[in-house]
Amino acid sequence: MNRPSRSGTAPRFALFAIAALIALAGCDELTSRREIQQGNKLYLEGRYSKAIEQYDAALKRSPGLTIGHHNAGLAYHKLFQPGVETPQNKVYAEKAAYHFTKYLEDESGDQKIISLLTTIWLDSGQYDKALKYWGDILAKDPDSRDVLEKLANINRQAGDWDKALQWHMKRVELEKDPGAKVKALTDIAQMQWSRLQKPELVDAERVAVVDVGLAALQKAEQLEPKNAVVHSLIASLYQHRALAHGASWAKAIEVASQRYHQIRFTEIQKAAGAGAAAPSGDKSKPPTPPAPK
C-alpha cells in the first residue's frame, strides 16, 4: 500500500494556510470598511472625535486603507483651530497632516488634499514641513512657476523675506509670457509693500525695501505701460519712500513721482471704465493710490 509522501502533503497544508490568511485578511478589511462607514455617519453629524475613534480602529486593523487616512485627516482637520496655541490643537494639526501624507502616498495627484495639507502646516507654524514637501516637488520639476510661487509665499509667511524674494526672482527669470512676467513682478512689489507695514522697518531699511519693489515695477511698466495696478503700486511705494526721507528736497522728489503715477492710474482707470487693466491672471484689487501729501 502506497503512502502519500511528506513532500506531497506539505504544499497542500501551505495552500490551506495561505487561503485561511487571505480569508482572514478579507474579513479584517471588511470589518474596517464598516467602521469607516460608521465614522462617516458620525462625521456628517459633526461628531468628529467619535468619528476619529472609528477611523483609528479601522486603520489599526487595516493600516493600508487609503480612504481611512483620507477621512481621518478630514476629521482631525475639523477639530484643528488655526491660531489656537494649545498642546491638544497641535496634536490635531499633526494628526491631520500625518493622515493626509499617508493618503497622498497612494493618491499623489489629489490637489485638494495637497492644498489642505499645506494650509494645515502653515496655520500650525510647521513651515519646515511645508518647505520640505514643496522643495521635493520642485526637485522633480525645477522650472515650475507655480511651485516657485508656492515656495515664495511659504517663506514669506515664515518671515524669511529674503528667501521669498529669491524664489520670486527665479520665477521672473523663467516667465516668457509678458503678462505672466508682469504678474510675477507685481507679486514682488506687493510683497515689499506688505513688508513696509512692519513698524520695526525704519529709515534706510524702508528705503531699501521700497527700492526693490520699485525696480520690479519699473520692469513691469516697460512691459505694460497702461497697467493700472502697476501705477497704483508705484504711487503707493513712492509715498512710503517719501516718508522715509528726512530731507525736504528728497521728500519733494518722491512726492512728485508719486503724484505722476497717481495721475497715470486715474487716467488708465477712466479709459478702461469700470474694469481696470490688470496683469494677466491677477484678479485681486490693487491698493488705491494715497492722496499726495
Key structural traits:
disordered N terminus, 12 helices, disordered C terminus, Serine Threonine Protein Phosphatase 5, Tetratricopeptide repeat, 76% helix, 2 domains, single chain
Short description:
The protein has helices spanning 6-44, 48-61, 66-79, 87-106, 111-123, 127-140, 145-158, 161-174, 178-195, 203-223, 228-244, 248-272. The protein has 293 residues and is mostly helical.
Q: What do these coordinates show?
A:
The chain has 293 residues and is an all-alpha fold. It folds into two domains: 33-125, Alpha Horseshoe (Serine Threonine Protein Phosphatase 5, Tetratricopeptide repeat), CATH 1.25.40; 175-293, no CATH class. 76% of the residues lie in helices and 0% in strands. It has helices at residues 6-44, 48-61, 66-79, 87-106, 111-123, 127-140, 145-158, 161-174, 178-195, 203-223, 228-244, 248-272. The longest helix has 39 residues, at 6-44.
